[in-house]
């Protein structure tokens, strides 16, 4: 992140430029300000909440996170495995609780991101800096190049799934209901939590927290970390982001082999990846199948590692200690 005087002092002129050019997406900007304000209020009431509410809000982090990672990302955006109808329904419900737009819209933006990474057609182009790739892209209207890129791609497969169609038809009412009303009344009904506190903590604080965990994949995992699989690309292997985003920080591998359901080269014992663990557990009981892996690429990588090992070059070249993450500066592609 660039905290230099030059970058901070340029904020007013950047904001003024976008206001003048009419680039601001006011609906999203007002929504974001409102939700972050409620989140700040929510943080102040945490000490007055019942322990059950705090545990519930904490558990909603991975629960709703799986709706993003296992659901809209690995299943619907990349088709990296297939899932039973029941699994798809549950993933759609927890995805709605995460409330990050409909599965259709999320997948559309994400496929455009993969195809046009770090160009003007990338919805969250990381060459525009940390803030833009993290949240700024949602506060501005889409670049014309992004819209045109979307028109050139086919997303009809998404709406062939009745589960996706159902959620898309009820968007945005259904996700709002699942994200805020269901957790608030759950905490109120089952352990008598005050409705307002349940809404603030299990609703707003948890919602904003999970959103920022997701955003870190687009910002930090595109700017900081190692590039063992594709040295020319921005996406990086970032173990810290994997902790926040339950296994999505192994992003250099993921952009190289997006069809890989694990979104990482190694198993869960060496790379933190609870999303892979969940898919494997569902496969073990026959609820998901056809899990794709970057097998050919993996074998190629293994041959390379063996050659490196013989030459005395250490591997894996993935940082395991957060404070050693390299901060790289690259020219725009
Ligand atoms: Zn990416
Ligand atoms: Zn992806």
TrEMBL record:
Keyword annotations: Fatty acid biosynthesis, Fatty acid metabolism, Iron, Lipid biosynthesis, Lipid metabolism, Membrane, Oxidoreductase, Transmembrane, Transmembrane helix
Could you tell me where this protein is found in the cell?
Membrane
State the Gene Ontology BP annotations: unsaturated fatty acid biosynthetic process
**Entry keyword annotation includes Transmembrane:** yes
Q: Principal localization? A: membrane
Extract the GO molecular function terms from the UniProt entry.
Answer: iron ion binding; stearoyl-CoA 9-desaturase activity
Needed co-factor(s):
Fe(2+)
Q: Which family does it belong to?
A: Belongs to the fatty acid desaturase type 1 family.
Q: What is this protein called?
A: Delta-9 acyl-CoA desaturase
The organism's taxonomic lineage, starting at the top = Eukaryota, Sar, Stramenopiles, Ochrophyta, Bacillariophyta
Q: Which gene encodes it?
A: fD9desD
């Amino acid at each position: 992140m660039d905290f230099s005087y030059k970058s901070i002092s340029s904020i007013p002129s950047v904001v003024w430029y976008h206001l003048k050019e009419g680039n601001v997406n006011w609906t999203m900007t007002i929504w974001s300000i409102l939700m972050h304000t409620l989140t700040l209020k929510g943080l102040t009431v945490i000490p007055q909440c019942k322990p059950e509410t705090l545990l519930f809000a904490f558990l909603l982090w991975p629960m709703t996170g799986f709706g993003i990672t296992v659901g809209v990302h690995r299943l619907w955006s990349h088709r990296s495995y297939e899932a039973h109808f029941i699994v798809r329904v549950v993933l759609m419900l927890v995805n709605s609780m995460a409330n990050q737009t409909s599965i259709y819209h999320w997948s559309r933006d994400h496929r455009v991101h993969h195809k046009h990474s770090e160009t003007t057609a990338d919805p969250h182009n990381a060459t525009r800096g940390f803030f833009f790739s993290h949240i700024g892209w949602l506060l501005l209207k889409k670049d014309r190049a992004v819209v045109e890129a979307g028109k050139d791609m086919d997303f009809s497969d998404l709406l062939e799934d009745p589960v996706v169609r159902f959620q898309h038809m009820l968007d945005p009412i259904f996700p709002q209901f699942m994200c805020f009303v269901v957790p608030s009344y759950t905490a109120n009904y089952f352990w008598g939590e005050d409705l307002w506190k349940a809404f603030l903590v299990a609703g707003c604080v948890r919602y904003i927290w999970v959103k920022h965990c997701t955003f870190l994949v687009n910002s930090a995992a595109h700017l900081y970390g190692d590039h063992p699989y594709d040295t020319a690309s921005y996406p990086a292997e970032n173990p810290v982001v994997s902790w926040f985003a339950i296994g999505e920080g192994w992003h250099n591998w993921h952009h190289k082999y997006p069809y890989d359901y694990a979104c990482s080269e190694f198993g869960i014992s060496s790379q933190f990846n609870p999303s892979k663990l969940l898919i494997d557990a569902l496969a073990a009981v026959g609820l998901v199948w056809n899990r794709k892996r970057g097998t050919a690429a993996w074998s190629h990588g293994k041959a390379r590692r063996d050659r490196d090992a013989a030459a005395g070059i250490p591997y894996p070249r993935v940082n395991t200690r957060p404070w050693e993450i390299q901060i790289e500066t690259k020219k725009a592609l």
